[in-house]
Amino acid sequence: MESKPEIKLGLEGVYFTESEICKVDGINGKLYYYGYSIETLAENSNFEETCFLLLNGRLPDESELSAFRKTLASERELPAEIVSVIRASARTANAMDLLRSTFSMLSLYDKDANDNSEEANMRKSIRFMSKIASITAAIGSFRQGREYVKPDSSMGHVENFLYMLNGKKPMAEEVKILDLMFLLHAEHSSNASTFSGIVTASTLSDLHSSITSAIGTLKGPLHGGADEAALHMMHAIGSPENTEAYINDALAGKKKIMGFGHRVYKTYDPRARIIKRRLEELRGSADEEVKNLTNIALAAEKLMIDKLGASHGIWPNVDFFSGPVYTDLGIPDYLFTPMFAVSRVPGWCAHIMQYWKSNRLVRPLEYYNGEIDRKYVPIEGR
Ligand code: ACO
Fold first, then answer.
1. Residue 188 alpha carbon, nearest atom of ligand 1
2. What are the CA-CA distances from residue 13 to residues 190, 241, 264, 265 (Å)?
3. Contacts with 306 (C-beta within 8 Å, 6 or more apart), sequence order
4. What does the DSSP assignment read for 296-315?
C-alpha cells in the first residue's frame, strides 16, 4: 500500500517557479514591483509607467513612455460585435461574467490571436490593457442606461476609462485617485488568478485563453470579488455604532469578514495602508454616504485588528478600503471586480510571458483515496 504523501492544501507554501517581477514580503508587510517598493511607486509613478515597468522590467525614458501611451490609446476601440453583446446583456448579466465572455471574444477579431511569438505577446498585452478597460467602461455605461462612449485617444488611460464610463471628462483629482488604485492592483506575484493564467499558458495555449482563465479566477469572493463583498458588508452594517455587534455576530457565526486576511500577508497589507490614507484624506470633502462608509470601515478595521490582528495574523487586505474610495468616485459596486481585472492585466501578462521563457507544463498530483477494481453492475441490476 502506497503511503500517503504530505498534501499541501491550496498549494500553501509551495514554490512552483522563480520570478523577479514581484516580491510579497508577508511578514514585514512589504511589496515590490521589480524591486521598487509599492510606496515609492505610489508616490512617484503612475499606472501607465508602472505597466511599462511590469512588461519590460525597467522604467521607460520619456520617448518610450510617450510611445507606450500612444500605443495604449490606439488600441482602445472595440469590435462592433462585442459592443452589441455588452449592450444586450449589461443590464442583466453579472458584470464579471460579461467581462470574461467578451474578453474571450476579443480573440475572434485579433490577427495575433494564435501567434505566440514574444513580439505578438507584447502587442497583445498592451492591446488587452486598453480593450479590457473599454469593455469594463462599456458595461458600466450601458448598465447605467447610457450608450457606448467612443474612446478619446487624446486622453490618458485612466482619464479615458472614466470618460467612457461616465460620458464626461473626469476631474484631475478623480483621475489621480483612480490611477493610484490601478497602480496598487497592477501586480501581486503568484496569486490565484495569476497562477490560473499560468496553468493555462503552460499547456502552450495562447494569451487570450490564459487571461480569460485569470479573469474567471479573479471573480471569486476569496480573491478579487472581496472588494464588492466588503462594501456590501459596510452597507449591511449601516452605521458606525452597529459595527461591533455586526462583527461579533459574524465571527460568532464563523463567517469571514471580507477584506481581511491573506494567504501571504500575516500583517497589514501595504496596499490597504495606502488606500486607507487616501480614504482618510478624502473624507473631509466626501458626501455623507462616503463619510459614513469610511467611519464604518475604520471602526471595523480597529475591531478586527484588536480581535484577530496580532493573535491570528488577520489584517486588512487591499480589498477592504477600496469600496468607499470607488463609491466616492461614483463607481458602482458591480464594477469593482472588473476594475480589478483592468488593473491586473499587466501583472498577468508579465508573469505569463516570463513563464513561457522556460515553460514547463503545470501538472500537480492528487492522492487517490477511493476504491479500486469495483465490480460493474449492469443498470438493470442496480
Ligand atoms: N474573517 C474571519 N476569519 C478569517 C478571515 C476573515 N476575513 N480570514 C481568515 N480567517 C480565519 C479562518 O476562518 C480560519 O480560521 P480557523 O483556523 O479557525 O478555521 C483561519 O483564519 C485561516 O483562514 P483560511 O481561509 O484557511 O486561510 P487562507 O490562507 O486560505 O486565507 C483568505 C486567505 C482566503 C484570503 C482568507 O483570509 C479570506 O477568506 N479572507 C476574506 C476574503 C478576502 O478578503 N479575500 C481577498 C484577499 S486579497 C486578494 O485576493 C486580492
1. 51
2. 11, 39, 9, 12
3. none
4. HHHHHHHHHIIIIIHHH---
Residue 200 to residues 17, 206, 295, Cα–Cα distance (Å)? 15, 8, 42
Residue 355 has pLDDT above 70, yes or no: yes
Contact 360, 143 (CB under 8 A): no
What gap in Å lies between CA 32 and CA 270, rounded to an integer? Answer: 10
Q: Are 100 and 212 in contact (CB under 8 A)?
A: yes
Q: Ligand 1: which residues within 6 Å by Cβ?
A: 10, 191, 222-224, 226, 256-263, 312, 314, 317-319
Asked if 235 and 278 count as a contact pair (C-beta separation under 8 A), the reply is: no
Closest CA to 259 of 289, 216, 290, 303: 303
Pick from 22, 188, 191, 256 the residue to mutate for probing ligand 1's pocket: most ligand atoms within 8 Å of its CB: 256
User: Tell me, what's the pLDDT at 1?
Assistant: 64
Span from the CA of 256 to the centroid of ligand 1 (angstroms):
7
Residues contacting residue 215 through CB under 8 Å, at least 6 positions apart? 96, 99, 100, 103, 193, 341
Q: Which residues contact 228 (CB under 8 A, 6 or more apart)?
A: 221, 323, 333, 334, 336, 337
User: DSSP letter string over 157-187?
Assistant: HHHHHHHHHHSSPPPHHHHHHHHHHHHHTS-
Q: What is the pLDDT of residue 284?
A: 85
Q: Which of 319, 36, 83 is nearest to 49 (CA)?
A: 36
Q: How far apart are CA 268 and CA 95, in angstroms?
A: 30
Count the Cβ atoms, other than its own, within 10 Å of residue 50.
26
List the residue whose alpha carbon is closest to atom 8 of ligand 1: 261
Does the pLDDT of residue 311 top 70, yes or no?
yes
Do the Cβ atoms of 99 and 341 come closer than 8 Å? yes
Are 100 and 216 within 8 A, CB to CB? yes
At position 232, the amino acid (one-letter code) is H
**Which domains are present in the chain?**
22-221+339-356 (1.10.580.10), 226-328 (1.10.230.10)
Mean pLDDT, rounded, for 197-226: 97
Ligand 1 centroid distance, CA of 262 (Å): 6
Q: Are 349 and 210 within 8 A, CB to CB?
A: no
